[in-house]
Every structure is written in structure tokens, then in C-alpha cells.
Design brief:
With about 375 residues, this protein is of the alpha/beta class. The chain has 12 helices and 14 strands. The protein folds into 2 domains: about 60 residues, DNA polymerase, domain 1; about 300 residues, Aldolase class I (TIM Barrel, Alpha-Beta Barrel). α7 packs parallel to α9.
Length: about 375
């Protein structure tokens, strides 16, 4: 028995091949693609400019998958966490962060994570499976629907962004969009995106396709803990997206301990991959640095960090650690955060110290771990 094809797993060129294999004209793929991503068609019967015969054939060979949130939790700062239950019963979460009218959506790429970073609550899940391309893009489409139904209030905590993609060279003259618009996509949710490139790359291609989700490539950021060969592949296949690197330590000794990936790809190799990543124009690599009290938050750490990244176009996100059960790391003091931040700023590094957003709903950095799923099942 032939299985039907989920069309949301297909980029536009792949959809063209699929329909040509059924003897259909190439332009039909563009029609279907626009119906899916620009009209959010849930079924083929909605595609009114396509013949009934073709719609019937598509119904026999294909389907259009969909996700609706199982639960939505909203924090006091307007952050929303969405729980999505997948077809096999597993679940992932996405987080929407409204900042000054710019909605940033943090999406997941895997169920669980294999990277086992010590400070990350999400990382305490072992990897269950990769998300499909459709499961990645469906997170975006589901949140867009929710925003239309329930637009967020506008918040203005300027230091709260996951990744600041609003540098003047990138954003001059851009329309801010409606409160229901998603401005930035960051692949920083559950999972390691570069561990699932076979599905992440097509998903990004759909996001930035002018006939698809119509996002600017400068508004899509892929985060990695440091999978060096996969960084090279991402740069080859989608060279214009933003890169964020979760660094979190300035010595191999410490990074080996808190981030096992460093044992395979130590800091020197990781930074060389950053130098070689093909960022266009004046864009920069974002270095994410989770500050843990008494572990990596000293002035000596700040000095080493500056030396490590000084020859790479860079900006730094300082992320005070979010304390959580089952982890012995502590949040840094305000004095340590301020001293670290000031040291870098005084040496002309672009630094954002991220305000904790969504901590009251376990949606802050590194905290996605199925709390909502537990509540539903209780």
C-alpha cells in the first residue's frame, strides 16, 4: 500500500518534481505551494483555481499536514509557550517572545536532544527522534494562526531578544509589521538543529522562499552547540542565514565538562568554522554565553572570550543561567554580569545581556522540557 506524501515536507523544487512525476505541469506546483503557505490551506478542496480533477488526484496521493497547539501558556511578560503533540504521541515546544512589536519565534528541531549539555534542562531529555520538515514549518504556521486570533500586547524590554537581528545595516527602512507578524525565527528550541540538517535545511528553504513563508534570510537564525562539519554544510547549502554559536566556556577543560560536543570539536576547531562560515555583508556570528555563577563568569573569562573571538565578526549574547531543579549550577550575581558586560562593551564588542523572558512558564533559555505535557496528562 502506497503511503501518501506530506506536501509540507517538500520545497518548491521538490514539489515540482512530485507533480511532474504525476504528469502535471510545473506551474501547478507553484499554485499548490502558494495555497499551502500563503493561504494556509488545510485541504485541497480550498484550492479553487485548481481543477477538481487535479484536486481529486492530489487527495489520493498526498496530504497537507497541520499542527494545532495542545496547550498555550502565557507568561507575565507576554512570552507564550506552545505545546505541540505530534502524530506519534511525542511532543515539542515553541516559544514566542514579543519585543517592541517584533515577534521572535523560537522553534524546535528534535524531540529531545543528544548533546547532553550539563546546564540545559532540555538536554536532560535523550534524543527520541528528529522532527520532519513539515513538523518544523508547522510550528511557525500554527503560531501565526494563534497570533491572528489573539495578537500579543507590545512589550519594550529592548535587552530581551534571543538574537538581535535588527542591526541598522540589516533593518533600515523595514516595515515593523502587524502585531500578528512573526519577524524573526530562531532555531533554538528543543534539539540541536545541525544534528537534523536533512530536515532543517528544507524547512529553512520553505521559510525564506518568496512563494512560501516569505521570511527574509536575515531574520532566520540557526543555533548550534558546535557541530563543525555540519556548520560547513549549512554554510554551503544556505549561506545567507544567521549563525549563533553556543560557546559558554573559554577553555577546553571547562567546555569538555559542560558541553560534551567539545571533546569532538574543541574550541579552536569551532572558531575556525566560524571564521569560514559565509556570512554576507556586515553580518556577524552571534556567540551565546550562558553565565553560571562561579563557573564561567569571572573577569578572566571575559578577557579570554575577547581574545578568542576578536578576529571574527561577532556579537555576544550574555545569558544569565536560569536555575532549575536537578542542576547544581547557580545564576551569576548582578555584579558579575555587569563587570563581564562592561569589560566587553568598553572594548567595542556588541553585547546584549539577555533579560530572562518566560521564566515563570519554564520557557526561558534551556528550560523547554515538557512541563505542559505533564500538566495535560495529570
Amino acid at each position: 500500500m502506497n503511503q501518501k506524501t506530506d506536501l509540507k515536507n517538500l520545497t518548491l523544487p521538490a514539489l515540482e518534481q512530485f507533480l511532474q512525476g504525476q504528469g502535471k505541469e510545473r506551474f501547478r506546483a507553484l499554485q499548490v505551494f502558494k495555497w499551502i503557505y500563503q493561504q494556509d490551506a488545510q485541504g485541497f478542496d480550498e484550492m479553487t483555481n485548481i481543477s477538481k480533477a487535479l484536486r481529486a488526484e492530489l487527495t489520493e496521493s498526498a496530504f497537507i499536514s497541520n499542527l494545532e497547539p495542545e496547550a498555550i501558556e502565557e507568561g507575565g511578560d507576554g512570552t507564550r509557550k506552545y505545546l505541540f503533540t505530534l502524530g506519534d504521541g511525542h511532543a515539542v515546544e515553541s516559544v514566542l517572545i514579543p519585543i517592541e512589536g517584533r515577534n521572535t519565534l523560537c522553534i524546535s528541531s528534535q524531540v529531545g536532544c543528544a548533546m547532553a549539555c550539563e546546564f540545559c534542562l532540555t538536554g536532560s531529555f535523550k534524543l527520541t527522534r528528529n522532527l520532519t520538515t513539515s513538523e518544523i514549518v508547522n510550528q511557525i504556521m500554527a503560531v501565526k494562526r494563534d497570533l491572528v486570533r489573539n495578537p500579543p500586547a507590545v512589550f519594550s524590554e529592548g535587552g530581551s531578544c534571543l538574537v538581535n537581528n535588527d542591526d541598522s545595516e540589516d533593518g533600515e527602512g523595514e516595515n515593523m509589521g502587524s502585531p500578528a507578524a512573526i519577524r524573526n525565527i530562531v532555531l533554538m528550541g528543543m534539539g540541536e538543529p545541525l544534528h537534523n540538517l536533512d530536515n532543517v535545511i528544507p524547512a529553512i528553504q520553505i521559510m525564506i522562499d518568496g512563494n512560501g513563508l516569505q521570511l527574509s534570510n536575515r531574520r532566520v537564525t540557526v543555533s548550534t552547540c558546535g557541530l563543525v562539519p555540519e556548520m560547513a554544510r549549512l554554510g554551503r547549502e544556505i549561506p545567507n542565514v544567521n549563525l549563533a554559536v553556543s560557546l559558554n566556556a573559554t577553555t577546553d577543560e571547562l567546555r569538555d565538562r559542560i558541553m560534551p560536543v567539545n571533546r569532538s570539536y574543541p574550541i579552536k576547531a569551532l572558531l575556525q568554522a566560524c571564521r569560514e562560515f559565509p556570512l554576507p555583508g556586515r553580518r556577524k556570528v552571534t556567540f551565546e554565553y550562558v553565565m553560571m555563577g562561579g563557573v564561567n563568569d569571572s573577569l578572566e573569562d571575559a578577557k579570554r572570550l575577547l581574545r578568542l573571538i576578536s578576529d571574527i565578526p561577532n556579537k555576544v549574547n550574555l545569558i544569565p543561567f536560569n536555575e532549575h531543579e536537578g542542576c547544581d549550577f547557580k545564576a551569576p550575581t548582578k555584579a558579575a554580569i555587569d563587570a563581564f558586560h562592561t569589560y566587553l562593551i568598553d572594548r567595542h564588542v556588541t553585547v546584549i545581556t539577555r533579560d530572562s523572558r518566560g521564566g515563570d512558564i519554564s520557557a526561558a533559555c534551556g528550560q523547554l522540557k515538557g512541563k505542559l505535557e505533564k500538566n495535560i496528562n495529570d
